[in-house]
Amino acid sequence: METKSPTSLRGVHSRVFSEFARYRVVLPNGPFAAIFVPLRIFYSGGMILQRRIGDLSATAVGLGCMPLSNGRMVDHREQALQTIHAALDQGITLLDTANIYAPSWNAIGHNEALVAEALRTYTGHAPLTDVLVTTKGGITRSEGEQWGRDSSPQALRRACEDSLRALDVSCIDLYQHHRHDPAMTYIDQVRALQLLKDEGLVRRIGLSNVTEAELDLAIGELGSASDGGVISVQNELSPRYRADLDVLARCEREGIAFLPWSPLGGATHAKDVAPRFAAFADVADAVGATPQEVTLAWLLRMSSVMIPIPGATRPETITSIVRSMTLELTDEQFATLQATPPEHTSMYPEDQPRSPLR
Ligand SMILES: NC(=O)c1ccc[n+]([C@@H]2O[C@H](COP(=O)([O-])OP(=O)(O)OC[C@H]3O[C@@H](n4cnc5c(N)ncnc54)[C@H](OP(=O)(O)O)[C@@H]3O)[C@@H](O)[C@H]2O)c1
């Protein structure tokens, strides 16, 4: 995300990502940071796994910022900011948000503004030039908590302009279409996204909650990741929900980043990974990690295009998220986890009829 301040322009080096740059050194904070770099690398591993998103790179696990705007967190803004700051301190370079992540319908943009405030008030050592903020549009919330969809060119443009204001940026680095609008063909929605790019409001396009057929259509219209077309897909994937493996396989073939949402089963269920999926608890015991860390490591191992975006509301959670990137699972452990049957329950099931493709 390019903010308006000169320090926030992403460096050219991060745009051209080499296969050799799979890891990045995480610098410590404080006035003597430079002196302690070698020590920090030695003691903490100090290298953080990177993955590609189109022409960009980001940490292999990002931070899903949605829970920071839930009703419970509204009175804990300081904690919310500290959580994002902890992510930046520990080297995370991907922050996922959306216009609708807000405690109520009349506070749209709440989460985006929180992310912007966190970046503005950050005083740590992490280079903000490396941070990619991804947002989304296409879902509506109106008076009385009426949820809807609108992907008409006018509505997406309005939503995008509101996001630009909330994020305090002049252009959005990666704009994701949140969910399909059943009132429009999918191809028209994809074309509406392209208009945002043509108008210079967004630099890159991602899709969310897509079927393989929709992704295929979008690739045909916009191009694939290597053409600078669709560079990311954000669909649900977790121990409980694995219905979109065909979409993941297509992303893999295309080199499109796959950002699994609610990777731990959702904010209210993340603590239940072990009771619901015993194999994750067993592997966690074997590798000396938590079941949640094993879940994230399992997703990372599943595909090189995978970039999980777990949510977090506490700085301590960030430490655990970062640790998950260092976990190595054996082939046998991975196979055991793969063999666990999913529950096929979605955290946010689709409640609209699928729109026609054309
Ligand atoms: N595109 C879409 O339609 C869509 C839909 C839903 C979500 N999303 C995105 O996906 C992100 C993640 O989904 P989510 O937040 O709903 O669910 P989630 O990531 O499955 O679960 C979030 C919860 O997991 C806990 N957690 C995270 N890492 C942990 C760890 N290492 N150990 C223990 N607990 C851990 C957090 O605890 P604490 O709160 O205690 O820190 C948080 O409450 C969202 O923030 C949002 O950005 C997108």
Describe this structure in words.
Helices cover 37% and strands 15% of the residues. The chain has 358 residues and is α/β, with parallel strands linked by helices. The protein has two domains: 1-45, no CATH class; 54-338, NADP-dependent oxidoreductase domain (TIM Barrel), CATH 3.20.20. It has a seven-stranded parallel beta sheet, covered by helices on one side. Strands 2-3-4 form a three-stranded antiparallel beta sheet, with no helix packed on it. Helix 11 packs across helix 12. The longest helix is centred in the middle third of the chain and has 15 residues, at 153-167. The model is unreliable at 1-20 and 33-45 (pLDDT under 50).
Helical content class: 25-40%
User: Reading side by side through the largest sheet, how are the strands ordered?
Assistant: 5-6-7-11-12-13-14
Number of domains: 2
Reported by name, the CATH topology of the largest domain is: TIM Barrel
Query: For this structure, what is the CATH class of the largest domain?
Result: Alpha Beta
Total strands: 14
Determine the structural class based on helices, strands and strand pairing: alpha/beta
Sequence of secondary-structure elements: EHEHEEEHEHEEEHEEHEHEHEHHHHH
Q: Which ranges are low-confidence, i.e. pLDDT below 50, for 5 or more consecutive residues?
A: 1-20, 33-45
Into which percentage range does the β-strand content fall?
Answer: 5-15%
